[in-house]
Amino acid sequence: AKSIGLKNSSTAGDTRFDRVKKLRERDNTVEFIEEFKKNQKAVIFGSSWESEERLAEIVASKNREIKLIIAPHDLKRVENLKKIFPNAVLYSGISDEGQMKNTNAQVLIIDCIGLLSKLYSYADVAVVGGGFHSKGLHNILEAATFGIPVLFGDQYMKNPEADDLIAHHGGKSFEDEFFAAPYLLSLLKDDTLLKTMSENARKFIDSQPNASEIIVNRILS
Q1: Chain centroid to CA 191
Q2: pLDDT for residue 209
Q3: How far is CA 154 from CA 134, 137, 178, in A?
Q4: pTM recorded for the entire structure
Q5: How many domains does the chain have?
Q6: How does residue 118 score in pLDDT terms, banded at 50, 70 and 90?
Q7: Which of 83-87, 112-116, 217-221 shows the lowest mean pLDDT across its residues?
Q8: How many whole angstroms separate alpha carbon 91 and alpha carbon 59?
């Protein structure tokens, strides 16, 4: 049993990368998102907390052309988001495609669970929550696998993959949301940098070994 334990698993790779690679292969369609985006750039705020909400508020006020899709970590945050963005659309309140085609809303609040990993497939940039405070960073791999830059706070001691993504120039961390805001705004205007970071994020995921296959082969050998 020890020969197929954690020691060998770690040298084989990380099975989390296998899982996020598979996310690309499924149908990632989320109803109404294309109609909301209207071919404009979109930032997904995934598993957001208070700091990410403030970042979204800054970005929305500085660039009216950017679409923001916010999926809070806790649905209790929805009420606060409605106060920050009184003109936002609630996902649960969308009745048909026509409603989305006719709205000029900048912000879409995801007030249900289970959609986030699919939503990343629509984003041009992802902001992943949890890293601006001691709660810890949420899953950045689910975003990076879709080949988009991933931005987050710098409190990620339990997430060594964050350092690796930064080293591959596919992600970037910040001390707080006020440092993150100008970078995010400039990134959205710099198509060359946006494309480069996007490619780097995807290459980072692709470069990881297929750990599950390696582990299984070791068990069978």
Answers
A1: 19
A2: 83
A3: 10, 8, 13
A4: 0.89
A5: 1
A6: very high
A7: 217-221
A8: 20
Compute the distance between CA of residue 103 and CA of residue 88 in angstroms, rounded to an integer. 10
Rg (C-alpha) for the chain, rounded Å, is 18
Rounded Cα distance between 191 and 211, Å, is 34
> Mean pLDDT over residues 139-153, rounded?
98
Identify the domain containing residue 206 by its residue range: 2-220
Can you list the alpha helix ranges (DSSP code H) found in 85-210? 97-101, 116-119, 141-144, 160-167, 177-189, 191-206
Crossing angle of helices 50-62 and 177-189, in 10° steps, is 40
Q: Which of 7, 26, 35 is nearest to 105 (CA)?
A: 35
Q: Distance (Å, rounded) from C-alpha 119 to C-alpha 126? A: 10
Mean pLDDT of 51-57: 98
- The CATH number covering residue 137 comes to 3.40.50.2000
